[in-house]
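Cross-check.
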Amino acid sequence: MLKALRPKQWIKNLLVLAAPFASTKLLANFLTLVIALIGFICASIIGYLINDWQDRQRDRLHSIKKKRPFASGELKLFDLVFLLLVSSFGVFITCVIVGETLSQMLILYIGVSVSYTFLIKNIPVLEMFWLAFGFLVRAIAGSYILNETPTGWFVITIFFGSIFLTACKRLSEKESLSSQNSRMVLSSYPVSFLEAVSTIFAGLTAITYSLWVVQEHNSSYYAYFSILFFSCALFSYLLTSFNTQAEEPESALFKNRIVLSMGLATIFTLAWVFYS
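Predicted model, tokenized:
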């Protein structure tokens, strides 16, 4: 059951903390944000469970996904219902504690996840933008919990960066024969198209991040160093996808030492700027 909850992918929900971290209000609202983070983990679990149940037949054709609990037959419909009820209860409790604003964002995120599974996932291009929108909802939620409006460059950077990660994932999947058997939309993507999209959005993400730093933190030269670290992590990850090693972003992040070290350097540099 724990495997069905995909704990390795919970790291994506840390986007909820991005805006509070950048606004220097992370520590002052830490408990509320942790509760919100738990709520989004529960919401994302709902999406994973429904997606894995819906795709269990096709996942059996994939060398890795065939080991997922529903695809392998380890878990049945009763287990799905039980896990959905537990996850939904977690979302409900979070909404009660944090309030109306988070409730709206959680419902929106669940709607995005479920609609992706049943309506969007086989539509080329739109499916990548839809997934990116799910990332964006999580990032914006962190600001709304604090009753703040995120800056334009911050929002655009998150959105472009999410499309970049999704395109890199599709590129790696395209090179994997087993992935093509389990994900129908891959047949609509030429490799050259995915290479172009991932490269373009890598550049756009680097540019918009740089503009955010210059606009919001131009008084600190240390912030400018983060542009170097961030860009290095970004294009190192792009190279990883060209080498077909970004099929699982959460694993690729920790396996690539350059991406991980440059990503941590970016976070520590910004922490120094924001909190020193």
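The chain has 13 helices and no strands. Residues 151-276 form one domain. Passed to J.P. for a second look.
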